[in-house]
Write a structure and sequence with these properties.
The chain contains three helices and four strands; from the N terminus they run βαββαβα. The protein is α+β, with helices and mostly antiparallel strands. The strands form two sheets. The protein has a two-stranded antiparallel sheet with strand order 1-4. A two-stranded antiparallel sheet has the order 2-3. The radius of gyration is 12 Å and the shape is globular.
Length: 84
């Protein structure tokens, strides 16, 4: 599933630079994650890097975007152009 940044975000900027898919960007009030680009770092790292660096633990699985590891892997391949 894609990740979601909650209202607890303090706009510290650390998550944006850690995202290998450039899925994180400043929103109107808090940072936001583009679910079409988020792979939870599948294909890049073993764990989501934004979650690892977030000082307030405000990045959670998006309950409206349940996805399997296979779906995340397919998105990674589509985003990077890597063949199956």
């Amino acid at each position: 599933m894609a990740l979601l940044i909650t209202e607890e975000c303090i706009n510290c900027d650390v998550c944006e630079a850690e995202c290998p898919n450039t899925a994180i960007a400043p929103g109107e009030e808090i940072y936001v994650i583009d679910p079409l680009c988020c792979t939870e770092c599948v294909g890049h790292y073993d764990t989501p890097q934004c979650v690892e660096v977030c000082p307030v633990e405000c990045i959670v699985p998006d309950p409206e975007r349940r996805e399997t590891p296979e779906q995340l892997e397919a998105r990674y391949r589509a985003l990077t152009g890597e063949a199956l």
